[in-house]
Every structure is written in structure tokens, then in C-alpha cells.
Amino acid sequence: MAAVVAALLFISAGVAAARDPFTVQPQIKPSSTYSFRHASGVFAGVWSAVGWGRATLLVPALRVTIYVCLVMLAMQIAEKTFVGCVTLCVKLFRRKPEKVYQWKPIGEDSSEKDSSVFPMVLVQIPMYNEKEVYKLSIGAACRLSWPRDRFVVQVLDDSTDLAVKELVMAECEMWAAEGMNIKYEVRDNRKGYKAGALKEGMKHNYVQNCEYIAMFDADFQPEPDFLQRTIPFLVHNPRIALVQSRWMFVNAGECLMTRMQEMSLNYHFKVEQEGGSSSFAFFGYNGTAGVWRISAIADAGGWYDRTTVEDMDLAVRATLKGWKFVYVGDVKVKSELPSTFKAYRFQQHRWSCGPANLFRKMAREIVSNKTVSWWMKFYLLYHFFLLGKVLVHTLTFVYFCTAIPLAAFAPEVEIPKWGLVYAPLAITILKAIETPRSLHLTVFWVLFENAMSMHRLKAAVIGLLEAGRANEWVVTEKLGDALKAKPTVQVLDKSETLGVDREPLLPISSKPSYKTTTRFWKRLHMPELVWGVLLVCCGFYDMFVTKRSYFVYVLLQAAAFLVTGFDFVGTHVPSF
């Protein structure tokens, strides 16, 4: 990288002395040696070719790219303004879901001993090798304030680690011994991943008695009154299929990366989910911390495993059947953010690739649907999928991380101030203001989000083309208290304390297990590193040659790419 920068500075210094660095030949002093004259002639020829390529290829392509990006930017501004106005009206006029829809506490008029007025609820907890957090979700689900004979906790364990299976099974048996109606379910394969597990969970006989399903991932901890605050929407409004609550994050302050994730997700819930719920009674189901009407799931066709976003797939199909969703932002469920960069990259790949792949598979179905209005079809295709799942990544990477930096090599290409300063600033303020405590981190957040746009755009393209990693499913790693305490290497057989006769799945071992240390070069992300070097070149060229002051932003953005490329983001789990 240093060699590239040095070469750039050398070229820039030579070019700056000329009036037009791309058309004027460099002045070479007469020399008596043939080799020097030959070298200077080659240099002049190469520089002339570079100037021709710049004028013929770079400048026209850059103009077209910037024009298209400005159109996309205007589309984004319109979308952000729309959802922002909707959520502002909701707050100003206090249009809470309890006022818009019928809502009345269940069992308020009946005797305390009469539990039959409470609907039967299934609480599903899918998990996969969740050693650090499995107790959290199971414990929180079993503590829900709902008559014990009116809900079933179903743990769907797809774990491949026998030690983890042993621990989860023992936890379920412990709660069962305390009188909880809890079922521990496993299957002999992982076909369909989470969607496959949820589909299998619906086949058990005891599920037939349930009307609603509350779903929580392994790291989610609902408050005891969760069902009391969400189920009434479904009971009193027969066309509501889903009640979605808001996520809260127990480890938001763990590192800078988790703080920046909190900023993005707060905007998603407070504005995007709120806006979709209040304007079209539709939004993308978040896959957890929500309650579904079982009949709506069946009406939509059940769980599909054709993409890695089975939750969004079900939500779109249910909407096309005429069902409505409601977002309840006052109901908050604790969860954990990925704190390692590796886990975050896998999560973002799935969250970017899956929706784009679903867009490819459902666009024709949405257009041909006869149930919903054309306005709803337009909202789904344009606002939800095209703008929200595809163009947002395209605009961020192509415009902010490519076109603007390359404009340093084309002084004749002008970018209007509204597209360079005002519009990006407005979007940033609209999104960052939802997390007031992190406003001082806005610059870092913007640079990090821009750097991640390369990874997200690549995933979206893979999804649209249904290429190699389109259906790759990597469960997001949860650390729980792994960074606060040493891991337990001994598997405890809790069945002894419960008086249950059962052979453990895995013998107890006193030998500690060690993690192999990851080689430094295996942590490098070459695309981000290469792009960071390119931006460094653009920044220094602008600083010393074109002098348009773009280098202030470009060099900061280059640093963000290099930091992510070297994996200096998030926490690192120590090896034992």
C-alpha cells in the first residue's frame, strides 16, 4: 500500500506542474543517453493513453453513474420523508395500536381461577448450538405471566453439538419437574434450517389445540407480561395475523460496533416498522419476538425454506392473502447483538442476500395477486423490496464509496451540492436522531455503514442471481457472558438432581478443550482492503492535484475500509 501511495504522490507532483495533467505531455530535459530518452518516451506514451482513457471512458461513465445515483438518492429521500412523516404523525396524534385496534385485557371480567377464557398459546424457541444463551430464552418463556395450563413451551433443538443437546435437554427437564408444560423436540436432520424446524414443530398433536404462536430466538428474553400485552390484539381483531414487538439490546454498550448496530436497528424499528404498520398494516416480520395467528400461517401456506428469510417470506405471503400486521413498539424484548465482526458479517450476508432472493422469487406472484390492491402491490415491490432491500446497498456503495472518490480524477464532472452534502446529511440526521445517546458516534456509524455496503451489495447480487451462497445459512454466534467468565468445559448431568433415569448423550469429560488460534491472515478481508487502498489513492490525488476538498471524506472512508479489512472491529473471543 505504501508503494502505491508513493507512486501516486510522485505522479501527482509531476502532473501538478502542468496546466492540463491529462493532455499535456511531460517536459523531459534533453539527454545524451538513449535509455533515458526511451524511458521518457514510454512514460509519455503511457500517460497519453491514460489521458485518452480518462476522457473517453471514465468521464462519460462517471457522469452517467452519478446521474443514476442522484435519481436513486432522490428516491431514498422521498421514502425516508414519507415514513418519517407517518411516524411523526403517530407520535403527535398519539395513534398507538391500542387506540387504532380493539384491545382489552383478557380475563378482566372473569374470576381469577377461570383460565378457560385465556386462549391456548404455543411458545416456540428454535435453537442451534446455543450454549451461551439457551437458559435465557427457556427461563424467560417459562416465566411468562399466563395460566400454566394455557400455554406450551416448545424447544426446537437442531444442535449438532451433543454436549449442548445434553444441557438444553436437562434445562427442559428441570422446568418440567417444576410443573411447566415444556416439550423438547429434536429431528434427525437440519433440512430447511430454521424454517424446517418450525415446520416440524407444527406437526405435533399438542399444537392442534393452540390458536397462537409466540416465537423467540435463543437469545431473546421476553418480559413476563409479553403475552398479556400482545395476545389481545389477535383475540379482538380477527384479521390481524401478526403482532411484532420491538427489540432491545442487552450488550449495546459492549463495543463501538454494537453501538452502531443499535443505531441502525433503532431506526428500523422506530421508523420503518412503525411506518409500515401505521400506513399499510404491513412490515417484514423480524423472525422473533412476535406472535402469529396459527390459522394465518396455515392460510399463507406454512413455512417455506426456499430462502434464508423464512420470516419475511411468510409475512409477504400472508399479506397477499389479505392479513394485517401490527407493530407494538411499547412492548420490548431483550436480545443480544453480534459483537464479533465475523458473526456480524454472516448475519448481514443473510439479511441482504435473503430479501433480494425473495424479491426475485415473489415479484411475479405479487403482480399477479388478485386479493390486494395495486397500491399495496406497488408498496411491496417498490418501497419494501426495490428501495429497501436492493437500491439502498447499491446507492451506498456505488455513489458514496465509488463515484464520489473517483470524481477526483475527473475535475470536469460536477456533483450538485444537494446530492453531495444536503441530501446525505438529511438522511443521516433522520436515522441517527432515533438513538440520541449515540449522536456523537454518527460519523463513525456513517463510515462503518458505507464500508459494510460492499459486503451487503455483494450478498444482494448473489441473492438476485441466486448464485453460490444464496441459500447459505450460518447461525449468528451469541456470546452471552463468554467474555465475562471462563467457559465451563465440563458437561453437567442435571438429571441426577431431578431424579430422572436417563443416559447422558455425552460422557462427562474432565479434559479441557482448546480452541485453535486463528491465523492473522485468515482474518483479513481482501475486497475491503483493496477498496481501502483505492480510496487512499483517490484521496491523495484530490489533495495534491484536483484540490476539490473531497479528500476530507474520501480518506476517512478509506480508513473505515482498511479497519474493517484488517478485522479491527468488534470484540475478539480469547482462545483457551
Largest β-sheet summary: 7 strands, mixed
Strand order of the largest sheet: 3-2-1-4-6-5-7
Give Rg in angstroms: 28 Å
Task: Briefly note the structural class of the backbone.
Answer: alpha/beta
By DSSP, the count of extended strands is: 7
What does this structure look like?
There is one protein chain. The chain is an alpha/beta fold and 576 residues long. Helices cover 53% and strands 8% of the residues. The protein has 17 helices and 7 strands. Strand 2, helix 5 and strand 3 form a beta-alpha-beta unit. The N terminus is likely disordered.
Which key features would you list for this structure?
576 residues, alpha/beta, seven-stranded mixed sheet, 53% helix, 8% strand, globular, disordered N terminus
A few lines on this structure:
By secondary structure, the protein is of the alpha/beta class. The chain has helices at 2-16, 34-92, 97-100, 134-142, 162-177, 193-201, 226-236, 256-280, 294-299, 310-320, 341-368, 374-406, 417-432, 442-465, 495-498, 526-546, 551-565, and strands at 121-127, 151-157, 182-185, 212-215, 240-249, 290-293, 324-335. Helix content is 53%, strand content 8%.
